[in-house]
Fold:
Amino acid sequence: MPKLIKGVGCPYCGSSCDDIEVLVSDDETRILEVHNACIIGTNLFHHANDPTRPRLPRQRQPDGSVKEIPYEEAIDYFAKTLLAAKKPLIYGFGSTNCEGMSAVGRIAEKAGAVLDNCATICHGPSFLAMFDNGYPSCTLGEAKNRADVVVFWGCNPMHAHPRHTSRYSIFPRGYFTQKGQMQRTVLCVDPRETDTAKLADHHLMLDQSHDYELFDAFRTVLRGFDIPEVVAGIPREKIKEAAEIMKKAKFCMIFFGMGCTHTDGRNHNIDAAISLTRDLNEHTKCSIMAMRGHYNIAGPGQVWSWQFGFPYCIDLTKGSHAHMNPGETSSIDLAMRDEVDCFVNVGTDAGAHFPIQAVQHLKKHPWITVDPNFCMASEIADLHIPVRIAGVDEPGVVYRMDNVPIQFRAVIKGLPGVPSDEELFDMVYERMCELTNTAPIWLAAKEDRKYPQNPAVI
Amino acid sequence: MATVTLKPTKVPELMFEGYSITPDAFAGKTAAQIAALPGHEGKIQVTIGDFFEVSGNGGETAADTDIVIAGDCSRVKYIGSKMTAGTVTVNGNADMYVGGWMKGGKIHIKGNMDSFCGIQMQGGELICDGDAKNHVGCAYRGDWRGMKGGTIRIKGSAGNDIGTFMLGGTIIIEKDAFIHVSTHAEGGTVIIKGDVEGRVGGQMVKGDMYVLGKIKFMMPGFQKVDTVEKEVDGVTMKLDHYIGDLGERHGKSKGQVVYANLYLKAAA
Structure:
């Protein structure tokens, strides 16, 4: 008799929908049906059924071929490579749980590595703006229940966060927004006519890379000064009209995405957006939120800020303190400047997402990929270690884009013999402690630890 | 005055973090002691002697110590960072953080510099004969107290983020700059003798900027008030005076709102 599991979290985008229902086979090894999720989330669950999923680590041989090796050997190679490197870079964590991120922190500290996550090519600039200017944000629940003016700036949720608009931002009927979409005015600021722009009541089609000027124009108008006739390709009247809509809102919600964080100015665009939010709060209630990409990409920011004091680009090479300065300690810059001599890719695909030159630099040195599936990063790696899929066959805590923690559950049993990220990293950490003859302090402090199995290392 | 000469002998595989290459660290030390001063290459602690041949002893104090690096330092970070006195001359390029957090003395880079030069600078003089990359005289991430004093003179061009969160001091770029000049600044002077792409003085509260070339994209929050005659780096010229950033908060002095000033060279 198949079982219907309710209240399942979806391990796809930053919306982290937690209303998914999954029908699984009675032996809990196969996913039969997925309800409520978007097409991408549905496929993500079904993907776990793939019989060709890797079950053993695969190591590249001197002749270029790939050979399956036992986990013990892979863990030994992983530990020795990290210890031998002068400055390893551990990058990824867009799609894994917080337990894995915490476990990798122990490895990074032991290895004197640079710890970075996908934010470095995504919402990293938002962090820098938050450091500089604060973050007047709220939860998605507030956006759903209160927001009557929603601004999508440089983001396209219709494609990137398919259920965002129906669960939180445009369509849902909330406590103070009982008429749903009828009650909401949607503004979209985007140089392209995206599907979100088509849905919006007002589309401000600005010139690409001129977001900062447009933010400044809004702020200048809000303070009662005049602006030039055209700013960033948008006529003055249109800007004034949009500013008036935001000002007259009961609750204005600004969502921003890659269009702000990765066009010219980067963190300054977000900085200006935060200043605009602050200014709008002189007139009404306004809040701002980053459209985080992956279901738990807010997780490393939370976990590592707690562990090391910084959310990303954490240089732990000194052993005594963490140093963070994107531009210097960010993955792409480290790669392009040949500043690292070992690369570990976890739960993301640097092979697909990094500039080709960065990948070429990184490929000069050992490359280890930890990923449940085959991807470009696994195919060019010297060692590919498969793990369980967080949110599908491995439970864990994830942080939604509004930094709300959600406990995700496993819906099926994991592949036999395949560890979770956390278990794998704990085993690597234990092996590193063995090799360096040190006590695994952090591991010993873990009450619910699954490893080490070897009591001699405690 | 005592001169210590460092001759590069080996290019670091990664980057050499030469945070000990300052007159303050060299003062009162012999050549052998200087060669044993620490640095980092990744997680490995190395010494200055691993990458340089050291000749000459340091002076008694930092002010009596001149450092000459006879060669390229493209892969050496933190040259002259946190120095308080003395001089450092590099006959070649230098990597990041040249003169970062420096309080006094003089640094002369004869080649190009990478990013973050003069970050959080408080005093002294930093001269570069070539180009600088991004974040010249800016603040460290999240710090609202940027450059406080001293002078940075770049004879070539610079990238973006010049004088972010600046509070005082002077930055002179003799050629062009890209974007973000004096963003969030609350003081200080930036002079750019070439052209700027845009975003000059965004979110700026107080301070002065001089652009002698053209600004391709003007910030909408700046408004022209008058034309003035002023001396800029020793030359008197006619300048259009703009105030801004009108979208940002501004304090008052003697009942008058104090804006940031942008002086743009007037058309002849």
About this structure: Residues 124-290 of chain A form a domain with the Dimethylsulfoxide Reductase; domain 2 fold (CATH 3.40.228.10).
